[in-house]
Design a protein that fits this description.
mainly beta; 26-stranded antiparallel barrel; ten-stranded mixed sheet; 2 helices; globular
């Protein structure tokens, strides 16, 4: 998504918490929606001949210097032919420097590695370096059951290194894998560099080399190569994204024989966004596995332009013309065994989203246009439309499709004479809470009518009852009717949320006193007053003072904590730290009157200055007081900055590392005085260096003539 100023955000989390002046410490992991300490016992296919029983859980045990964690996922069946499965089961230990995991391992090292094994990692916190090694086999069942496999288990081993810096990260790895099923022995070495802030751009580049040879035949190996370069960022009001990848045919990684290019530029105009994009993908892998006599080769090209915006409040519209061309040789026909199937589409995508109220909205998206295929050169019409409606607890989702949208639809039409595909999918559902939000009910039904396969009906429902704040009972029902075959099952289970036990961990009670220090001597004396209702944070936990300027935070584990004080009515204190190592500790914080330091940056060009991108966003401004305490902020897209500072004098400067090498910031020689009454303004110029101009002196040949 995009912020209004053009910044990009990905996964985001917003946390809301109450402010209190007397609270008891609780482990944040116990309050998370991803609670690590849970235990669930369930049974599926109730009253069925192959009823299953499952035990799933995750937990952690707090140690004086680290955490001991575990995960268990065991399923057993009544049927004799189904072996007991123990997957996603492991024991781990982790502290700031060391990490160990035994059991089921899942790791992505360009190769998807999963099975039974061990990982060990060491972190050098002083240099921000992490080292990791691991080995595993390919059996995802921790109990083994190798007798049920036709091939020996695969084996893998790897090592990895990561260095993390302020604005960049370097990651390297080496992995060796033997896979009898794919008849391969592979070695892979890779390096990737991520630069998080390069002139408002994020750059990720990687170069990997591989070598593969047959597992059971003494043949010459196949060297391989893969690389990618991803760039994203903003230039003024333009958002640019470029993602590029290449790998050779025998590359042992997940994406082999691939070329992928995705280029996109978006113009952020404020009321509307305009964009253009181009994508090209080619997949042509090769393998050494004897049983894989055929591998598909397919490609796609996609070009689009679009505009979106909000012409009226709560109404969002989008309009996107696009062209798509794709080919695939994996569809085999009796009369055309070597046919490469292709589809050429010219479409228009439209989107209408309207927010009726906080819990009500309607969304309609459609894709329609004309297409031709290698099987039928005549232009044909196709349409796909989606409707989503939410009215309180009621939800409705539906899809209408006329004609072939995908290349697979074109292939299916060639196999029968049912005519152009017609399909409708309607899914109404209800989600509601009862009994003061202790009973959560969700149920829905899906009806599908397909001109090629007939009608299908899917019914599902689930009820969760919170018996206690830490105990949940659930029951789920599913009934599926597809192609005249009906299948249904019932599942029930009980989940316990467990607290995180702590062994040998000492705790302290912290009392914080905030006061308004009028004479700025750091002592609460005559003329000073308590700071009532003042907000501050202990790490990320919000606290507020009572009528006496006090707050209490109990049962805090021993350790170092960050105290961050918000500015209120002009009273402020710098961020500070406290080391808790006694049972009861008190911290007195003197608040000083604060003022505002603001300003704007601007570029200064001369006649021969370099021609550069005039970016003003994200440039770091630093203010340092007489005690060498520094305060930092960053500029907005217009080069403006604002700092709330305690009353006093400051040395103000621009961080040159956040500028391009052709720019030199103005030096502010005088100390800047910040007062609580009126804002202080300091504008700073960014001088652009001159290009080197080479001048040559030409002498007229006439001066060499004889007199």
């Amino acid at each position: 998504g995009l912020y209004d100023n053009g910044d990009v955000f990905g996964m985001s989390n917003i946390r809301v918490q109450s402010t209190q002046n007397d609270r008891k410490y609780s482990d944040e992991s116990n309050n998370s929606i991803h609670n690590l300490n849970t235990l669930t016992f369930s049974s599926q296919n109730l009253f069925n001949w192959n009823q299953s029983y499952s035990l799933r859980g995750r937990g952690a045990l707090g140690l004086p210097k680290g955490n001991l964690g575990y995960s268990v996922d065991m399923t057993t069946w009544k049927g004799e032919y189904s072996p007991t499965m123990l997957r996603n089961t492991y024991i781990s230990y982790r502290n700031e420097q060391l990490g160990l995991t035994f059991g089921n391992i899942n790791r992505n090292m360009e190769l998807m590695l999963n099975g039974r094994g061990v990982i060990a990692s060491v972190t050098d916190t002083s240099s921000n370096n992490t080292y990791e090694i691991g080995v595993l086999d390919g059996n995802t069942n921790l109990l083994g059951n190798n007798k049920n496999y036709l091939f020996p288990m695969s084996r893998s081993g790897w090592g990895a290194f990561t260095h993390t810096d302020k604005d960049w990260e370097l990651a390297s790895f080496a992995v060796y894998s033997e896979n009898p099923l794919l008849n391969s022995r592979s070695a892979l070495v890779g390096n990737s560099l991520s630069i998080n802030n390069f002139k408002q751009f994020r750059i990720i580049g990687a170069i990997n080399t591989g070598y593969s040879k047959s597992y059971d035949r003494n043949e010459k190996g196949k060297p391989s190569f893969a690389g990618n370069l991803n760039i994203s960022g903003t230039i003024n009001k333009f958002l640019i994204s470029s993602q590029n990848y290449y790998s050779s045919a025998y590359y042992p990684g997940q994406r082999k024989g691939a070329i992928s290019l995705a280029e996109r530029i978006t113009w952020l105009t404020g009321s509307a966004n305009l964009w253009a994009s181009f994508e090209y993908n080619l997949y042509a892998p090769k393998t050494m596995a004897a049983f894989q006599t055929f591998l598909p080769v397919y490609s796609s090209t996609r070009t689009e332009i679009g505009v979106s915006g909000t012409p009226f409040k709560h109404l969002f519209l989008s309009f996107t013309p696009k062209h798509i061309f794709e080919t695939n040789n994996s569809y085999k026909f009796i009369d055309l065994p070597n046919k490469v199937l292709s589809m050429d589409s010219w479409n228009i995508n439209n989107g209408i989203n309207y927010l009726i109220s906080n819990k009500q909205y309607v969304s309609i998206n459609s894709e329609l246009g004309l297409f031709t295929s290698s099987l039928n050169p005549q232009k044909q019409f196709h349409l796909r439309s989606n409707l989503n409606l939410k009215l309180g607890s009621f939800n409705l989702s539906s899809t209408l499709q006329l004609g072939s949208i995908y290349l697979s639809d074109v292939a299916n039409n060639n196999w029968d004479d049912s005519g152009p595909l017609k399909m409708i999918n309607v899914t109404p559902s209800i989600q509601h809470d009862f009994f003061r939000n202790k009973l959560h009910v969700h149920s829905g039904i899906t009806f599908i009518s397909n001109s090629r396969y007939g009608t299908s009906l899917f019914l599902n429902g689930r009820s969760d009852f919170d018996m206690t704040p830490r105990t949940n009972l659930y029951i789920a029902y599913n009934r599926n009717q597809f192609l005249g075959i009906t299948y249904s099952f019932v599942e029930t289970g009980l989940t316990w949320k467990l607290t995180t036990p702590k062994l040998g961990q000492k705790s302290a009670n912290l009392e914080v006193f905030l006061f308004k220090d009028l004479n700025q001597n750091g002592v609460f004396d005559i003329g000073d007053s308590e700071a009532v209702g003042h907000l501050y944070y202990v790490n990320s936990v919000a606290m507020t003072t009572d009528n006496n300027g006090l707050s209490k935070y109990k049962k805090l584990p021993y350790g170092k904590y960050r105290i961050t004080i918000n500015s209120k009515n002009g009273w402020f204190a710098p961020e500070q730290y406290i080391q808790l190592d006694q049972k009861n500790q008190r911290l007195n914080i003197a608040l000083g009157q604060s003022g505002t330091l603001k300003g704007i940056l601007s570029y200064n060009f001369a006649e021969f200055s370099y021609d550069i991108v005039q970016n003003l966003q994200g440039i770091t401004i630093t203010a340092i007081d007489k005690n060498k305490v520094s305060y930092k902020t960053k500029t907005n897209p217009d080069g403006q900055y604002v700092l709330n500072l305690p009353n006093g004098s400051y040395a103000v400067s621009v961080d040159a590392t956040s500028l391009s090498k052709e720019v030199v910031p103005e030096i502010v020689n005088d100390l800047v005085q910040v007062h609580p009454d009126t804002p202080t303004t300091v504008d700073i110029q960014l001088f652009v260096k001159n290009r080197k101009v080479e001048s040559k002196k030409f002498v007229s040949p006439n001066i060499f003539l004889k007199r």
